[in-house]
Amino acid sequence: MAISILIPSPMRRFTEDQDTLTFESATTVDDILAQLVARYPDTKRPLRDDAGNIRRSVNIYVNDEDIRFLQNKDTVLKDGDSISIVPAIAGG
Amino acid sequence: MAKVLGLRCKECGEVYPKNPVHVCELCFGPLEIIYNYDEIASRLTKSKILDGPLSMWRYADLLPIDGDPTVGRQVGYTPLVKADNLAKVLGVRELYVKNDSVNHPTLSFKDRVVAVALSKAREFGFDTVGCASTGNLANSVAAHAAEGKFKAYIFIPHDLEQGKVLGTLVYGATVLAVKGNYDEVNRLCSEVAGKYGWGLANVNLRPFYGDGSKTVAYEIAEQLGWRAPQNIVAPSAGGSLLTKIYKGLQEFHKLGLIPDLPTKMYCAQATGCCPITTMVKERSEIMKPVKPNTIAKSIAIGNPADGYYAADTCRKSGGWAEDVTDDEVIEGIRLLAETEGIFTETAGGVTVSTARKLINQGILARDESIVLCITGNGLKTQEAILGKIGHTIPISPNLASLAEALAGLGGVPETGRK
User: Fold this and answer.
1) Does residue B338 come out as left (phi exceeding 0), alpha (psi in the -120 to 50 range) or beta?
2) What is the pTM of this model?
């Protein structure tokens, strides 16, 4: 088992076109995003603003739950979790 | 010179060529159309608008398609009703209802955005279109896809009102009822556009789609005699409509079509899903997503993509925001129907009751002009009011039975004519 991240299409040019990446382990959302950026440094700009916070135009889900309903970037991860990064889109 | 120069990220300002893309690759911010206003100003005049078709396309110079529209040529130019009866009940001087509940062809403001999105989809060469929808957009995309002979894939939450489901299926669209709420449907669709190469109205066509809403503002200003109202109350789901109405007024002002821009924008939401009004009322810079729980399903978006911009628009225009309970939504539907003879859907009930609340709070001034944006039709959301707005009186087909029934109502006035 491992923890996976689903990469949205606008970010794939920074991840060698891969739509899913897996990481052996991670403690929190913040940790796995740091690992993603360590592996693919160009993913940092869409994820974080200049102050290092997750951008307001980015939604992050752990197993289909928005992290803002969990503990945000401090949400604890476990083996087998799936993380999605989704840009905000319009409604109606 | 072209009237559309490209797309610009609303968050970081990065510029992109005119393509079916919706998010900035650098920061995931939403993209919006860059217009060449100098070029537009050189040919757009009041008389040109007045000579144009009686539809939203009289403002085609300010819409982001290159050629003539290929679908939805009759959309828009809906009535601006001077709502004197409702004004009297609410205790205000000058009140109007912008009545998009009778928009052609699917009875909601969404026909405006879809007419632009699918005309643009044709220009981009898409043969398949779709959307993520709470219902009204589904109806409109399906209808315009039929007109334009596109294949259509429509994604909706599984628990929508029957009127909205049937009003999508009837056009022959493929309707995918997703086991989840709207925000989950949206999330799925954000991946669908890229994977299948479809033109999704509110995903990869979003920058073009959204600007169709500007025509609500153009029409209000023209119908008021080339002036902007002092106050506009609009319902918010994703938050786009409210921001685009204001953008439309700003453009008219910039182009000299209206003399000034005094308009304050007010956002209306249901208390069971009010991330935008909460942000405004708490004067917060952070929008907290919510899990929707309201009968106003058409505006039940817990994680509104344009929420920040809608809240900003309320603030910078000097307006405010308020939300109302489901009971108040029903009262609002009934009040508009009983005073003005306009049957709106739940989102319209939200708008009417929010306006009443803001007036009673002293936030909306009683002596100023107010426009309520009624965006959808009540025939589509009948479940919401079923059993809550009175009942029929059964009688037999004879006068005795009628007399008995009327006596049960306390009798009738002496004469039925004045």
Assistant:
1) alpha
2) 0.95
